[in-house]
Amino acid sequence: MTTPLLTLSDVSKNFGTNQALSDISLEVNPGEVLCLLGDNGAGKSTLIKILSGVHKPSSGTVEVEGKPVVFDSPKAASDVGIATVHQYGGTFPLMSVARCFFVGHEPTKGVWPFKYFDKKAAGEITVREMQKLGITRVTDGSRLTGALSGGERQSLAIARAVYFGARVLILDEPTSALGVKQSTHVLRIIMHARAQGIAVVFVTHNVTHAMAVGDRFAVLIHGKKADDFRKGERTREQITDLMAGGEAMAELEAELAELTGPVQTTP
Ligand SMILES: Nc1ncnc2c1ncn2[C@@H]1O[C@H](COP(=O)(O)OP(=O)(O)OP(=O)(O)O)[C@@H](O)[C@H]1O
Ligand SMILES: [Mg+2]
User: pLDDT digit of tens for each residue in the chain (267 aa)?
Assistant: First the structure.
């Protein structure tokens, strides 16, 4: 038995009277993909913000390799090798793409005290690493991050996490803003990271994406862990129903079909 990279024990989080998470216990292991599933507002992003030092738990403990930790900042989490691509933002709109890629890891040229940020090298690395993810339209590292599309921004954040060698890669809905080609790239990166022994936490609403890469699954419903299983232990239909907060997806789809009516085809 190896010690899990991350262990959460009875983690709860409330925002005033809003109980976002109740007594969540989870383990994240090296070389495994943990899919975190659940409906809107289930508490997935809150859990991820606890793991990445954005929020502190109201109660419960987080351990890194068996040692209890309290992250005072996102930097504290990043210092132990936890890289997070948040659902919204995570980049700096007024910074160049290359600056953003190297925040906290600036490459320098020259000898102290004349070190300076090497824009050219940084730009080349950034463009190359993004191209590896299939983002080919960004060809200039000096472009502003704010001018990228949502998917391009997500890809930038994933590229930097992989490039700087994270031990835990946390992705909060990385594929929801992406096209088919880029989603496939992200799934490929997840598998690549897993093969290198990185622990991946993957939040998604897409059951096909989850089933394609997940080794373990945890389902949150209203802030509680409703189910926890390994690959192959649930059918696709069971997973879809759990992802809809425990409601039968077939019934929801029938209701949706009633509301929208038959699709009109032109004669
Ligand atoms: N900073 C905050 N202050 C107050 N309430 C919050 C805060 N962040 C989240 N919440 C509340 O906590 C609950 C869980 O939100 P969370 O963002 O974790 O859900 P989620 O599972 O990520 O949903 P989605 O699938 O829509 O992204 C929601 O009721 C939300 O309104
Ligand atoms: Mg969320």
Answer: 678 999 999 999 999 999 999 999 999 999 999 999 988 899 999 999 999 999 999 999 999 999 999 999 988 998 899 988 877 655 677 889 999 898 877 777 776 666 677 888 899 999 999 888 778 888 999 999 888 887 788 788 888 888 887 899 999 887 777 778 778 878 888 888 888 888 999 998 888 889 999 999 999 999 999 999 999 999 998 988 888 776 666 777 777 777 777 665 555
| Residue in 111, 82, 227 with CA at minimum distance from that of residue 169 | 82
Mutate to test the pocket of ligand 1, among 13, 44, 242 (most ligand atoms within 8 A of CB): 44
**Where exactly are the structural domains of the chain?**
13-90+150-242+249-260, 92-147
Q: Which CATH fold would you assign to the domain 13-90+150-242+249-260?
A: Rossmann fold (3.40.50)
**Ion ligand 2 nearby residues (CB, 5 A):** 44-45, 87
CA angle in degrees (0–180, nearest 5) for 109-110-113: 115
